[in-house]
Amino acid sequence: MFRLALALLLAFVPAVAHATDAGWALLRAGGHVVLLRHAMVTGSGDPAGFDIDACATQQKLSERGKQQARKIGALFAARAAPIDRILSSRYCRALDTAGIAFEDNKTEKFEPLDLLSKDAAAAAAQNEAVVKQVAGFSGDGNLVMVTHLENIQALTGAGAREGEAVIVSVDGDKLRVLGRIIF
């Protein structure tokens, strides 16, 4: 049983490395959009009654998450992946991920990247605004959009680990995954 589990794990590692290398190749060329899930956090959800404008009431990046955010920024620089613009959810864990990772760039708050609304019509409007932003991007560098798992799943049909980058393009009213980078 142990050997089978080890064999499956070892078979998966080269696929992850290949996906990550392909993702960096896309970003080095510029002109792409990255949905970046915020880095690792403490706890498993925001407490009841949290305030979007008060970080003390929200889930925070863990020490490991802060390290992960620094690694994200260092790898973007080391891999020569240019950044034109950074948009972030207004949640502190997303803003902190962007601020730590990309300290030289000004992060802009973009409300449609906030956790998806429980209201179906509001959630659809959020997704539409994100797709519109992706469709309208035409920079020489890359657009990084820091958001949450639920948003990435709703937009692409795929999940993402904490701190994972999902490179996307527009495909109708959804986004298509072009590549991934796992940090």
From TrEMBL:
Protein name: Histidine phosphatase family protein
Domain of life from the UniProt record: Bacteria
Signal is among the record's keywords: yes
Lineage, top ranks: Bacteria, Pseudomonadati, Pseudomonadota, Alphaproteobacteria, Hyphomicrobiales
Keyword Chaperone: no
Family matches, as Pfam families: His_Phos_1
Keywords: Signal
InterPro entries associated with the record: His_Pase_superF_clade-1, His_PPase_superfam
Stretch forming the signal peptide: 1-19
